[in-house]
Amino acid sequence: MIDPRTPILVGAGQITDTVGKPSSERSRVAFCTEAANAALEDTKAAIGGHALGHRVDAIAVMEFFSDISPRFASPYGRSSNPPKSVANRLHADPKQLLYTHSGGNMPQYLVNKFAEQIAKGETELALICGAELLRSTQNARRAGMKIDWNEDPGGGEPTRIGDPRFGFSEEEARHELRAAIHFYPLLENAIRGGLKRDVDRHMKAMGRLFERLAAVAKANPLATRREGYSAEALSTISPDNRWICFPYPRLMNANAIIDQAAAVLVTSVEKAREWGIPQDRWVFLHGCADGTDTWVVSEREKLDSSPAIRGCARIALDMAGKKVSDVDAFDLYSCFPSAVEVAMTEIGIPENDPRPISVTGGLPFFGGPGNNYVTHSIAEMMNVVRAKPGSFGMVTANGNYLTKHSAGLYSTEPTKGAWKREDPKKFQAELDALPKRRVETKPTGTGTIETYCVTYGKDAPERGYILGRLDGSGDRFVAMTPDDPALVADMLTREQLGRKVSVSELGGRNVFRPV
Q1: For residue 289, is pLDDT > 90?
Q2: Structure pTM?
Q3: Angle 25-27-32 (CA atoms, 0-180°, nearest 5)?
């Protein structure tokens, strides 16, 4: 007997469009609704997908990139209430209309949250969806098209959910460190230092790792890059694989310029039976967890680890009564190699483990639709475990700069007893109690480079950045290169990890020079 309040995922819909022309009709919220309708049809409900759409009583939409970053801002307008726009198209009247704050962790976080609400009888049918149209936006700009995505669906402002804080500190921002393309390369070189690898050896290892993702994407018709890149091609600098921010060339970065949408539906066993959703569509959430690492990267005690990932995986597995060896497939958040490497280490997945570490192909090759990638990975994991009944798949989700984490363990095998998760506040209290590294905002004297990265323009390196440790106090500091092209070039040809530097203030920023 399955407890009737047990939460289950019952529908998944995904769309990737690589050829469609931009239009006013396909706005971001309209694209979300396309994926939602695909998920409704995927349930194979006896009452029909259209009628099931009317039953949706909670809708959560992932925040669109155009609402987050000036780089991705759209000139074509927006909906004033994205979840309400989706609800209107579905002819639904939900009690909850949620629009997330930024974070790639949010799709799994919402599955966890809605599962808990459903188990308590607070929600009956939840829709999680999102979409990005950055390919269409770029094409429309280039063509000088006049399209209109403005929409006021009524209902006022949606309820915001998630953590609204910026992912960087004032000290980091003072030194131009604000974006993922700065922080993940910094983490990568810290990982390399921990492994005691030189640059060439580590580049080849990253190539081998992402070759595995590229192979999955090659076989996935929904992937945007299906070339099946070799490890050599991924780790070799070429006109098609130029440096973006050392040590990452282009093909080791998430591919955001895509048109993709995805949606998943969460309900209870009781309601699934009432609506005639066949049991072969049911996917059970056996374990889940959420946790946030030390928020500011430069304050983390260790730059090559994630206590939150380790704990999320442990809690999810313990909740399910399973071990890592029981998991048949993973989809590890894969915006950059460092995210995958840390996750594998923390979860306990050996480098040569034959099990899939992605079921989509990952953000560089499947596509990186902003905050909505994990909705795709959950949808695809549903397909994977349905195709192999009784198997288990784990999805990990990551927001900001290896900061916000969520995990879910999925299977068609029913859970046992009443569904209940550990209060995530308990684990978060443990994470918050971990030591932090003091950051000196006015460092002077000498220190040692702990990690570094070098940003590139279109054709040449532009600036180097370091996190270092001061001699004597051991405090961490943030610094950048002065206006010195020779020093920037030297950072690309000489090992910087462990290098002695002097640091001082110049023009309101900390700058460093080798000693």
Answers
A1: yes
A2: 0.97
A3: 115
